[in-house]
Amino acid sequence: MLVEPMITVLIPTYRRPQLLARAVRSVLTQSERRVIVKVFDNASGDETKQVIANISEADSRLYYHEHSENIGALANFEYSFTQITTPFFAVLSDDDYWLPGAFERALNDLSRWPMAWMWAGLLLRVTDDGRIVDVRSSSWPESGIQNHEERFRLLTYRSVPIWTSCLFRTEALGAVGGLDASIGPQFDLNLIIRVGCGGSFILSHHPSAVFTLHRNSFGDSAPLSIHRDGWSAFLTKLRSGEGINSHMMVALADLYQRDLIVVLWRQALRALFKRNRDASIDAHRVIGSSNMSVFRKLLFSAFFFAVSHSKLIERIGAILYFSTERLWISRQRSLQTRYGPVVEVASRVD
Prior knowledge:
The structure is a single chain. The protein is of the alpha/beta class. Strands 1, 2, 3, 4, 5, 6, 7, 8, 9 and 10 form a 10-stranded mixed β-sheet that branches. Strand 2 (35-41), helix 2 (48-56) and strand 3 (62-66) form a beta-alpha-beta unit. The chain is built from 14 helices and 10 strands. Helix 11 runs antiparallel to helix 12 (294-309). The chain has 2 domains: 7-214, Spore Coat Polysaccharide Biosynthesis Protein SpsA, Chain A; 218-309, no CATH class. It starts with 6 loop residues before the first strand and ends with a helix.
């Protein structure tokens, strides 16, 4: 007997057929069966189509759309949002995956609290070699529906849910609008904040999805000017209020403006110590044109000059930077013990 689907999972993809298969199977093997998966292939021109065809032979809940040409990653995400056909939806990158039982818990909670527009479970951030770097939960309150005060705190930079482990009520898009790819790389964060400001949402402390960290991911490899421009567009959108709890959105914009300084510094230092000359020059230009204090700009300029003109300083700085990064990751061993077994099983690529 056919069952009416409740959840549409959107998966835009480009040239990652094996990882895509893992993402798709992580949804189709959920205990909650009222799910459909829609894959949007950005003209990969590889075996992606055949991989999906092989899976769909055994499961009719999988749909595939291939663009005739590459329309760009952001436009592909934006197009996918026009294809939602169920009361709930989720968005999944082709290299990420859901953990068992997440959708069943999410629908149970959303049924219990019908006023909630969004459900967010724990998100594990895992390197491509299986190390669990962190869990998006350290500052979260208890599970359940969140009040106005908690909603504001949870939407700040270090606490905001990431949409990889979120299930949305589709009707929320009618109130806050769809995906706005014109913002750039922060389009997902913008949607989370609009939904969170516009309505209630639920938190769950169950591990629900995995976000895969790659050494050559967009966040690491993109020029700093793209990050700066994206953040600028993001903050402008927040300050516009868009008619949805505008006071909360403006207050969040002020907090994110301060966080932007930290983001710029971290990305700039990483570019310097990875010896990417073009990225370093771009970082220097971006820092110089930002609204940081004159002291911080001069400090970075002096540091940039020293690293650029002294191999010794560059080497010492790189050792300190990456040693600190590795030390921080090594201290997350308790996360590996706690969540490692479920990630090991769910992360297998057939």
